[in-house]
C-alpha cells in the first residue's frame, strides 16, 4: 500500500508521497511538508504517523487547529482515502493505493492513474454540485461545502429535495457512508472535473 497527499498551493497542486514512520507538516522549512506561504500555519502544525496498514494525523498544538473533513480534531485520527485535511488556509487531500491479492493495484489516488471521468448528471444534480462546492473557492480560511439549508435556499427547493439529490450524487460518485459525505462529494466532484472553477466563481452552470 502506498499513500499520497494532494497539496493545494498558490503555485498549483502538488502530489507528495508519504513514507517512513512520520511526516511533519508546518510553516517551517524543515518540515517534510513545508507550507511556507501560509502565515496561518504554525511552525510545526501537525504530524502524519505511519500505522503500518494506515496513516493517522495528529495536531501538534497549533494555534489555528487542524480540521479533518470540516471537523476540528482534538486527538489522533486515522485517515481514509479521500479525506480532506485543512491547516490554516491550506487544503490537503489524503489518497491511498492498495495492492490486490493478484498483484494488481486498487487505485484510490489521483497520482497513480488518470482521473475517472465524472458520472452523467442531470441539470439539477449539476446545480446542486455547484452550490455545494462554491464555498471552497471563497476567501474563508476554513471553508466548508454548503449546508443542506443553504443549498435549498439558493436553489429555491425544499431541504428534502436537496437531500434526495445529494443521495443520488453520493451513489453516482460512490461516496463512502462514513465521515462527512458532503465534504467527500465536493472533493470528488472537483477532482473528477464534474464542476469547474469558472462555474464556482460566477455561479453559472
Quick overview:
This protein has helices at 123-133, 148-155, 159-172, 181-191, 197-202, and strands at 2-9, 12-18, 22-26, 33-34, 46-50, 55-59, 66-68, 71-72, 77-78, 84-87, 90-99, 105-108. It is α+β, with helices and mostly antiparallel strands. The termini are far apart.
Radius of gyration (CA) equals: 17 Å
**How many structural domains does the protein architecture include?**
2
Summarize the helix and strand pattern as letters: EEEEEEEEEEEEHHHHH
What is the class of the largest domain in the CATH system?
A: Mainly Beta
What is the number of E strands?
12
Q: How much of the residues is beta strand, in percent?
A: 25-35%
The gross shape turns out to be globular
Helix content: 10-25%
Features:
205 residues, alpha+beta, Tumour Suppressor Smad4, Arc Repressor Mutant, subunit A, 2 domains, 7-stranded antiparallel beta sheet, 5-stranded mixed beta sheet, 12 strands, 28% strand, DNA binding, phosphoprotein, SMAD_FHA_dom_sf
